[in-house]
Amino acid sequence: MFLTRVLSALILTPIVVGLIWIGGWPLSILLLIFLSLAAIEFAQVMRRGGFEPPVFFTITLIIISIADVLCPNVHLLRPAIAFVLISSLTWQLFKRTGTPTVNWALALIGGLYLGLAGAHFILLRQLPNGERWLLLSLAGTWLADSGAYLVGSRIGRHKMTPTLSPKKSWEGLIGGIVIGTLLNMIVAALLELPIIHGAALGLIGS
């Protein structure tokens, strides 16, 4: 499993870094792909808890959030969200099995969470030195996740959420916080950004 992660990182990291540096539509398309995959994974995790959020509406909200940032003069966000709210609720009215209200809420929460995160990635990229700040923000999350996996897979004993994510442990969380924060300070120095900001983003990413 660890070897798979390393090989994936070696292949994907140059592509992601290159597209962040280029910015524009290539970065936006990459974000849509990754966030849509995250939405599918979110729906799969929710299914383990017995829920069935309609992932189509989650991905639709992601697309709307990204499009609103790319085309701010269209003022797309509020009317599009209103349409998704009504249409998704209507959809759930015809699916009365299970927990339709919870499924509806989960689909919307997931879409808004991922969509707004993606929108702010683009807004961050548009700032002066935005490519560096975006890389630093993402590096904090990547490093913390890797640190949590390394520590948790070796010494993790106390499970955080056995039902939804049985492999995550409190030991892994602590390891991710420490490793993510320390290594992100190094990344900040390499990117010629304030080290304290690297530490803060590493902690947030954890």
Q: Would you write up a description of this structure?
A:
The protein has 206 residues and is mainly α. 79% of the residues lie in helices and 4% in strands. It has helices spanning 2-22, 24-48, 55-70, 77-93, 100-125, 130-155, 170-190, 195-205, and strands at 159-161, 165-169. Strands 1-2 form a two-stranded antiparallel sheet. Helix 5 crosses helix 6 (130-155) and helix 6 (130-155) packs across helix 8 (195-205). The radius of gyration is 19 Å and the shape is flat.
Q: Which descriptors would you attach to this protein?
A:
mainly alpha, 206 residues, two-stranded antiparallel ribbon
Task: Describe this structure in a few short sentences.
The chain is mainly alpha-helical and about 210 residues long.
Strands across the major sheet, in which order?
1-2
DSSP summary: helix tally: 8
Please outline the major beta sheet: 2 strands, antiparallel
Low-confidence stretches: none
On the 0 to 100 scale, the average pLDDT is 88
Approximate helicity band: over 70%
Which overall shape is indicated by the principal axes computed on the Cα atoms?
flat
Number of strands: 2
The value of Rg in angstroms is: 19 Å
Percent of sequence in beta strands: under 5%
Cα-to-Cα separation, first versus last residue: 21 Å
SSE string, helix = H, strand = E? HHHHHHEEHH
